[in-house]
Amino acid sequence: MTTDDDTKPLWQYVTKNERLNEGRGNISWQCNFCQENKKGSYTRVRAHLLKLSGFGIGICKKITHKDLAEMQKLEDEAKTRIARNAPKQVPLPPSRHIQTKSQSFGTGSGNMVGSYSNSYSTMEQKKRKGNVSALEKSFNLAIRDQVDSEIARMFCSSGLSFHLARNPHYVNAFSLVTNNALSGYITPEYNKLSTILLQKEKTNIERLLQSVKSTWSQKGVSIASDGWSDSQRRPLINFMEITEGGPMFLKAVDCSGETKDKYFIANLMKEVINEVGHENVIQIITDNAANCKGAGQIIESQFPSIVWTPCVVHTLNLALKNICAARNINSNQHVFAEFSWISEISNDVMFVKHFIMNHSMRLAMFNEFVSLKLLAVAETRFSSTIIILRRFKLIKGGLQTVVISNKWGCYREDDMVKARSVKKLVLNDIWWDKIDYILFFTTTIYDMIRDCDTDKPCLHLVYDIWDTMIEKVKVAIYKHEGKHPDESSSFYGVVHQILIDRWNKNNTPLHCLAHSLNPRYSKTS
Q: Secondary structure of 350-387 in the HEC alphabet?
């Protein structure tokens, strides 16, 4: 893998100062020989040091012939290194339509595609002389096939998804070129795409979003914020605004090296609020973490017209976590006593899943009998336990077929004790009944998560949906236990208390106000 030092060796003869905000990657630098301050890209550094004219920069008069020869040697070695590491062009087999016209795509011994096409064209011309139809000539079928081959090679060599061919901008780009006969058109290179055109597209997007921003003062704005990590594991906090027209990304802040306490988060929130305009902001939405709650309280104290609202979906997910993964601590013994069997079922399901996924032969047996796949659900995903249980219920028949097959019993290369344990669980009807019961009474909670985890406005519905959800949970539990509504249930009592506690922590005046203003619940005269 080549680096900047390998391909641009003359950077070591200047001192970089700072990057200029010109959208072209230019920086300010100082020559180590003449001590003059210059600005520009590596092209100007090279011209200055190697005393090249015609690049819009003066040459260095302090460089000796010895220094010049040394730098020229480094530059030549870099060019050789770049050429050696450049991707090699591998030709695709040409189609039967390739004619001598394909020579226009490249000639010379250094161009494998061009030379291959040329030699093939010569042979084809000898074989098919006089056999080319008028239709092929009029529609340039040879060139069309060659273009198709180049496009296919681009997709394959770059690992691009074939769905890109459905992108309307991809289609429009080729349509514009062909319909306007842009002879000699050259596609934009890497530098132009990553600088000028990227900045131009950003400006275009900002122009298109002005129509959304113009509604902020009339419709009001909700700001949503959440933390996540990118592919490089950098901690980021993103901010989005939500209006009647839909969500719009505002910015993401890299929090590397920062302590994400309530004061730090509150300062980030204030910056975004001031950018949007505090008079336009109605609420700011975060998860229920202690630092986010503290930051929300700071915002409410400094901006009396803005309400901090905890995320409803995150609140419901925490309620499910309290039920499906109750903690065994002294202050939680009563809850753990009621829900410990749910944790055991969840652990058993994960044990079965991991045993199959971690043994290639067992996984091959599973894939032979089951069309659906075992999901790899991240722990950070909402209601991850319920998602896994729902998938197991769908593949119940297939799993049982796998463990009673001859292949399962005959294969003895892995842990046979665990294999027997998996078979015992999968064939246990009581175990499956418990999974059905968990899904039965948590379905309404899971459905509410899906209803609220959407871009559609639902603040005015949360109050009623939550109340209805609690009633449905009670009906499901009482039906399973065979009790009448006026009887007491210790299991439901704990579930009810968890849901009520979570609602009390999530409930804000906005929920009640939105519910009261909903025409569905207004009295008619």
A: HHHHHHHHCCHHHHHHHHHHCCCCCCCCCCCCCCHHHH
